[in-house]
Amino acid sequence: MDTTKELSPEAQAIYDGLKAKIGSFTPDFELWYKAQLAVEINQLKKERNAVVLGHNYMEPVLFHTVSDYVGDSLYLSRVAAETEADVIVFAGVEFMAETAKILNPTKTVLIPSTKAGCSLAEAITAEDVRWLKAQYPGVPVVTYVNTYADVKAETDICCTSGNAVKVVESLDSDQVIFLPDEFLAGNVARETGKTIIFPTKDKPDGDNPDLQYQMIGWQGRCMVHEQYTVEDITAIRADHPDVVVLAHPECSPEVVEASDFSGSTTAMMDHVRDNDFPSILLLTECSMGDNIIANNPDKNVLRLCSVRCPHMNQIQMQDILNALKFNQYEVTVPEDIRLKALASVERMIAIG
Predict the structure, then answer these.
(1) Do residues 136 and 204 both lie within one domain?
(2) Of 23, 122, 173, 259, which residue is most buried, by most CB within 10 angstroms?
(3) What is the pTM of this model?
(4) Are residues 92 and 13 in the same domain?
(5) What percent of the residues of the chain are helix, what percent strand, and what percent coil, each to the nearest 5?
């Protein structure tokens, strides 16, 4: 690739901005090439009246160039509900694009890669939720937004990692079904002082049928966050005694308890920005660490980049370009499912 070729003024400006933000950890040829892709994408956005929503886990060039809005699931859900763009390109995983379609059905919603799934979303089905509701009749169902539309349709209210505690506390019920993330459920139970069980179809009352419980969980996990351990924290603290550890609440309760702070991706970003720590360890997807470093060049940010999300990393600049150029891949949700799911998602957004 001939990186000596003169860039257009638009591409040069993007390249220069990227060089200043992420040039210290991104190869120059990548910046040069992707700056040109960004020009093409931005032109197509104008032609199609399109908006790109970029999750905090997106790779840095995509995050810092073509994404019109960046943030966590809750924030991007709000944007998806309110945008006047004709086309929404969701730079994230499939359940996020589905949520955008649920909230704004008249818009064309595109997911740039059909491989951008989610281990959590795949951990539970609508049939599983119906089984749980039959086992615990009348108990309200809280479902993490990291689920597919048919699961949301069986739900009373959705939540994100940022508002899960608020959602649970908003319900006037002695018991709550909380799905599908085992660790997020455990962390919410710990924070709210509730006892939780994890039933299975062969053990409907969990491992302890005599336990007095207030929450009913499910054994789904994020394939990224479940890999972080207390031993990881101990090892990093040995080398960096002053390190402040930030853990996503999809990490195990033991990891969250051993950390200094736990919150949604946006809360973690804000915590880094607003505090002057000697060093910071992020226990979440590594690309978000790159994006935080780009926005906080004066901060000493550590991350464990051996742990990556193969689904989020499916979305690259070329995929965004192809989505806009070829209208691929359009997300659809059957109307009967959409309407049921809409109620649970709108309740989540209302709680904030």
Answers:
(1) yes
(2) 259
(3) 0.91
(4) yes
(5) 45, 15, 40
